[in-house]
Design brief:
297 residues, 11 helices
C-alpha cells in the first residue's frame, strides 16, 4: 500500500494482479487494512486491480469539511490520472456503486465498462437504506442491525437457530469497527461519508451513459433492495441486470455470481475461463453478511 497526493488529500491505494485494468470502488467504511475475501482474490487473479481508501476513511486524508459525491468521483478520476491510467473497467459496490455512477457521469472517457453491485440511483429512482440513522447506535446494536439489513433472511428466528454463527458474524463486525478506532478523525470522516451518501442522486443523468453497464443484485438485500436496482439498470441505456441468491454481499454468498461479475468486466476474455483465485476457499451462503460488516457496506 502506498499514498499519493490527489487534489486536496493523500489517497492510500494498492495495485495488485495482472491483466486488464480494473478500478475497484468499495462501500461505506471501506478500509484496505481489512482482510481480503475470496472475491477480492478472484479479481486479482484476472485483473490489475486498483483499490483505494476513499476520503475520510482508512489511511487516506480526512479534511474537515463536508464531502459531496462529486468529491468522491473526482478523487477516483484524479487517482487514475496520477497513476497514468487513462481508462479502466470500473466496479462499484454499495456506496462505491454510487461513486462509480458519479465517476461515469463526470468522467465518462475513463470508464470502459461499468459494473454496479448492491447500489441504487437515489432521487426518483429510490435510495438505499438510510445507514446514517444507525450512526448513534452503540457498536453492538449497529453491527447487529447492519447484519440483518445485509440479508433479510437473518430474522430473530434465524439468529436463534444459528447462535454460534450469528455470534461469529457479530464478533467480526465489532473487530472491523475497532480498526482505525485510534484515529481521532475516523468518526468525523465516517459521518461526512454518510452526508455525501444522503445527497446521492444520479437518476436524471443516467440516460446519458453510453459505456457497457451491468447491475447485479442480491434478492435478499435490504440495504439496496433489488427493486431499486432493477430500476437503476432500466435507467441506463443497454444495461443488463441480474439477481443472485444472497444479500448485500451476494457475490460472496452465491458461488455462481463472482465469475459472472468477472465476465461482465472482461469482454476481452473471449470465451476463456475465468481464472480462479490464488488461494481459493469455501464460503457458505450464511457467511456473506459477516463480510458486509468486515469489508464495508
Amino acid at each position: 500500500m502506498s499514498c499519493i497526493r490527489v487534489r486536496d488529500i493523500d489517497i492510500c491505494h494498492e495495485l495488485d494482479g495482472t491483466g486488464p485494468r480494473l478500478l475497484k470502488i468499495w462501500g461505506t467504511g471501506g478500509d484496505l487494512r481489512r482482510p481480503q475475501t475470496d472475491f477480492d482474490r478472484l479479481l486479482v487473479a484476472n485483473f490489475t486491480v486498483l483499490a483505494f481508501d476513499q476520503r475520510g476513511m482508512g489511511r487516506s486524508g480526512k479534511p474537515a469539511r463536508d464531502y459531496g459525491m462529486a468529491d468522491y468521483a473526482d478523487d477516483a478520476a484524479g487517482l487514475m490520472a496520477a497513476l497514468g491510467w487513462d481508462s479502466a473497467a470500473v466496479l462499484g459496490y454499495s456506496f462505491g456503486g454510487m461513486v462509480a455512477q458519479e465517476l461515469a457521469l463526470r468522467h465518462p472517457a475513463r470508464v470502459e465498462r461499468l459494473v454496479l453491485m448492491s447500489t441504487s440511483a437515489g432521487g426518483a429512482g429510490g435510495s438505499s437504506h438510510p445507514l446514517h440513522e444507525l450512526a448513534e447506535l452503540d457498536d453492538g446494536e449497529r453491527v447487529r442491525r447492519l447484519l440483518e439489513l445485509a440479508d433479510s433472511r437473518r430474522t430473530a428466528q434465524w439468529q436463534a437457530a444459528h447462535t454460534a454463527l450469528w455470534q461469529s458474524l457479530v464478533d467480526d463486525g465489532l473487530a472491523a469497527l475497532r480498526l482505525g478506532a485510534d484515529d481521532p478523525l475516523q468518526r468525523a470522516g465516517s459521518l461526512r461519508q454518510f452526508g455525501a451518501r444522503r445527497g446521492h442522486d444520479t437518476w436524471d443523468r443516467l440516460p446519458g451513459l453510453t459505456m457497457p453497464a451491468s447491475v447485479f443484485a442480491g434478492c435478499h438485500d435490504a440495504i439496496a433492495p433489488p427493486q431499486l436496482q432493477r430500476r437503476l439498470a432500466e435507467r441506463i441505456p443497454g444495461a443488463t441486470y441480474r439477481e443472485f441468491e444472497g444479500g448485500h454481499l451476494f457475490f460472496v454468498q452465491d458461488p455462481s455470481a463472482a465469475p459472472i461479475v468477472v465476465e461482465a468486466l472482461s469482454p476481452s476474455l473471449d470465451g476463456q475461463k475465468v481464472m480462479p483465485p490464488a488461494q481459493p476457499g469455501a464460503v457458505s451462503p450464511a457467511d456473506g453478511a459477516g463480510d458486509t460488516a468486515r469489508r464495508s457496506a
